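User: Please fill in residues for this 192-position structure.
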């Protein structure tokens, strides 16, 4: 019931086309956090876009910048600007890039994201070496292509289950019982 498309100049037209084909589908727009990515994410939150997925590089930094910001700072800026403009409740904000530990997930939500996306930890859960040689036709040293579907699902389920348990433990330490109440509550986090 959810699909994601890359941001472009006619993203709203593409959303309308998708909704004509599949009424009721939720469309997420993926916005890379380049120099103008934060401003673009804020512009998209005008009511026509339901979900914005902001993405930093694999280290959680702004893409293509000489002095990059971290994903936490960019998420906080977008979240606060949307609140100031009265648009925060109109859009779901997903943040991704540089998420390697369950603490990063909690901090992403504390900085204002509704959801946090992970990619590399799931690959590591499948025993990926992160050698960055993933190209069509090249040999994978971890032989991920040979993993059975059930084994892969089991590994990912175990990883997400462990992260869930750690998130519950973090929330307990903060005196919180509901993850939704964490959104934007930066007073509960310590940043270094």
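Assistant: Residues filled in for all 192 positions:
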């Amino acid at each position: 019931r959810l699909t994601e498309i890359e941001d472009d100049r006619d993203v709203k037209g593409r959303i309308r086309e998708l909704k004509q084909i599949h009424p009721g589908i939720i469309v997420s727009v993926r916005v890379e956090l380049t120099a103008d990515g934060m401003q673009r994410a804020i512009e998209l939150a005008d009511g026509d876009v339901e979900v914005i997925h902001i993405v930093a590089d694999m280290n959680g930094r702004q893409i293509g910048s000489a002095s990059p910001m971290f994903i936490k700072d960019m998420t906080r800026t977008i979240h606060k600007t949307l609140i100031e403009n009265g648009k925060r409740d109109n859009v779901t904000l997903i943040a991704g890039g540089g998420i390697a530990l369950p603490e990063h997930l909690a901090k992403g939500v504390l900085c204002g994201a509704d959801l946090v996306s992970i990619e590399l930890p799931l690959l590591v859960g499948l025993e990926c070496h992160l050698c960055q040689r993933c190209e069509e036709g090249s040999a994978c040293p971890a032989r991920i292509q040979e993993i059975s579907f059930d084994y892969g699902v089991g590994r990912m389920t175990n990883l997400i289950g462990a992260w869930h348990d750690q998130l519950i433990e973090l929330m307990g330490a903060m005196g919180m019982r509901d993850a939704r109440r964490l959104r934007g509550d930066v007073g509960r986090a310590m940043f270094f």
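For context: The longest strand covers residues 26-32.
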